[in-house]
């Protein structure tokens, strides 16, 4: 495997939100010196990225449409994401920011692991070792799913991966392999399996536990990873460990948001740390709140037409009025949104009232984890268990008037559903019969509604080879086919110029 020089060295900064600078011009040894368990714990705050994929991948998905040139977009990165174009910007919400931010987080995890490995007799460090391994695995997981083609266990997987970095950098120029997607997934799995048994919730202060990979969040990540890894029995196992014995009691209380009149109040309530449904919260510098909730920036948005595919769209609830999340829609014809990603201002000058816009992303929730388990059960043809999971999610999101969701009703409804909620799936995926296909469509329908605005729909589009269409005002529609190379976001220009092979186009 050819090696490429890659600039991803950093100085470790212990802060909740960092700037989206390009590559630093100092040696990586200019960093926090670790001398105690407390400093390791402090350092691991930086192992959580302060940038996010959410805006980029949501705009690339079928949840967004072009409202035409009478409306504006905030910056060109918004246009480039919607058009599946090569990005020319390096600010927040871009591939450059994502690459830099996630590799900075990986470097923090590696720095902590280096110190821990040098103190093997200090058992008090083990929970932090577990956290660092899970953080490292999660960051690589997002990077490989954004910048690479999807994982597929059926065919020989020769698709280009991303560098899997496991050691702190000591020099300015470091050579890395761009291994295959398959090898990257294997390494993620290794980190997860080693890290999971070490996670200990007692290592975190109660107030901060939802901002760390606590046990439930770590198991939820393991469940989603194994679902993508096509290791379905493991996905079921880890989802069950995350959800516990009474999942229905931990799901989001959809009715509770009716008490809030304003979208901001609803958005603040959505990310409360004390909610059982919120397993991991991750703040990030992002303009996404502005770019999908403000009339001034609604050139590309989830509009009323798209709403008819999602929260006001068809589903086994029979009538969209029976689907509770559809009752909390704000906006106008060109931008219709559910208020889950409220923007928070992190001040850099309180007197001047200036700072960075942040969102708090519900990275892992019980509701989404339940749907992961449902999908895994479908792939295992455990239809009774899958129906139980889907019915639990369905009942928590619908009113009493909605019909019961039974195994026969799922099969009957989705066998007759139209293309809005029954898109063409990649025939090469491991789906063997009509019943399994219908159940997968149910899962995808529910997950699209559950994760609206969160960017996760894009990963389902990639995994299942769903062909989607973006309308472009004044031009022909742009179709993203199953084999379209644009499904893998191009790696940053700085990285290519440093010698790393680009994604094929």
Can you describe this structure in just a few lines?
This protein has 17 helices and 11 strands. With 505 residues, the protein is α+β, with helices and mostly antiparallel strands.
Provide key terms for this protein.
Serine Threonine Protein Phosphatase 5, Tetratricopeptide repeat; disordered N terminus; three-stranded antiparallel β-sheet; two-stranded antiparallel ribbon
Task: Give a description of the structure.
- The protein has 505 residues and is α+β, with helices and mostly antiparallel strands.
- It has a domain at 1-52 and 93-203: Alpha Horseshoe (Serine Threonine Protein Phosphatase 5, Tetratricopeptide repeat).
- The protein has helices at residues 37-43, 54-60, 76-82, 95-117, 126-147, 181-195, 215-228, 232-243, 263-270, 288-293, 304-307, 366-379, 383-397, 407-416, 434-450, 457-463, 493-497; strands spanning 3-6, 65-66, 174-177, 278-285, 300-301, 330-332, 335-337, 343-349, 354-365, 468-470, 478-480.
- Helix 2 packs across helix 3.
């Amino acid at each position: 495997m050819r090696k490429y020089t890659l600039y991803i060295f950093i100085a470790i900064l212990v802060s909740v939100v960092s700037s989206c600078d390009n590559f630093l011009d100092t040696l990586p040894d200019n960093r926090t010196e670790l001398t105690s368990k407390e400093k390791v714990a402090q350092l691991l705050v930086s192992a959580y990225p302060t940038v996010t994929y959410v805006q980029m991948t949501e705009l690339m998905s079928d949840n967004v449409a072009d409202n035409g040139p009478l409306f504006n977009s905030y910056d060109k990165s918004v246009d480039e994401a919607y058009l599946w174009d090569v990005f020319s910007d390096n600010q927040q919400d871009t591939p450059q920011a994502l690459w830099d931010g996630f590799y900075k987080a990986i470097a923090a995890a590696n720095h902590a692991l280096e110190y821990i490995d040098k103190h093997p007799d200090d058992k008090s460090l083990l929970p932090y070792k577990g956290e660092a391994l899970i953080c490292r695995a999660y960051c690589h997981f997002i990077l490989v799913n954004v910048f690479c083609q999807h994982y597929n266990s059926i065919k020989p997987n020769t698709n280009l991966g991303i560098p899997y970095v496991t050691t702190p950098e000591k020099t300015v120029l470091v050579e890395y392999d761009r291994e295959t997607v398959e090898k990257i997934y294997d390494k993620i799995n290794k980190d997860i399996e080693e890290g999971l048994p070490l996670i200990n919730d007692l290592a975190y202060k109660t107030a901060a536990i939802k901002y760390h990979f606590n046990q439930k969040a770590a198991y939820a990540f393991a469940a989603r990873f194994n679902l993508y890894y096509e290791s379905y029995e493991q996905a079921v196992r880890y989802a069950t460990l995350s959800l516990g014995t009474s999942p229905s009691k931990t799901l989001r209380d959809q009715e509770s948001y009716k008490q809030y009149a304003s979208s901001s109040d609803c958005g603040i309530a959505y990310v409360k740390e004390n909610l059982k449904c919120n397993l991991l919260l991750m703040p990030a510098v992002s303009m996404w709140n502005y770019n999908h909730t403000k009339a001034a920036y609604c050139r590309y948005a989830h509009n009323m037409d798209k709403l008819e595919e999602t929260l006001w769209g068809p589903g086994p609830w029979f009538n969209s009025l029976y689907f509770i999340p559809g009752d909390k829609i704000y906006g106008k014809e060109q931008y219709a949104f559910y208020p889950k990603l409220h923007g928070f201002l992190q001040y850099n000058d309180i007197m001047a009232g200036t700072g960075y816009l942040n969102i708090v992303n519900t990275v892992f929730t019980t509701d989404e984890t339940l749907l992961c388990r449902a999908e895994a059960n479908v792939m295992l043809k455990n239809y009774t268990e899958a129906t139980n999971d889907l019915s639990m999610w369905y009942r928590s999101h619908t009113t009493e008037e909605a019909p019961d969701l039974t195994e026969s009703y799922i099969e009957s409804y989705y066998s007759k559903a139209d293309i809005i909620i029954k898109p063409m799936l990649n025939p090469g995926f491991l789906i063997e019969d009509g019943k399994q296909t219908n159940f997968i469509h149910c899962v995808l329908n529910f997950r699209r509604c559950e994760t609206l605005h969160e960017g996760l729909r894009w990963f389902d589009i990639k995994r299942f080879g769903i062909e989607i269409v973006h309308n472009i005002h004044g031009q022909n529609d742009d179709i993203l086919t199953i084999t379209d190379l644009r499904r893998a976001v191009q790696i940053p220009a700085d990285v290519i110029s440093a010698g790393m092979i680009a994604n094929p186009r």
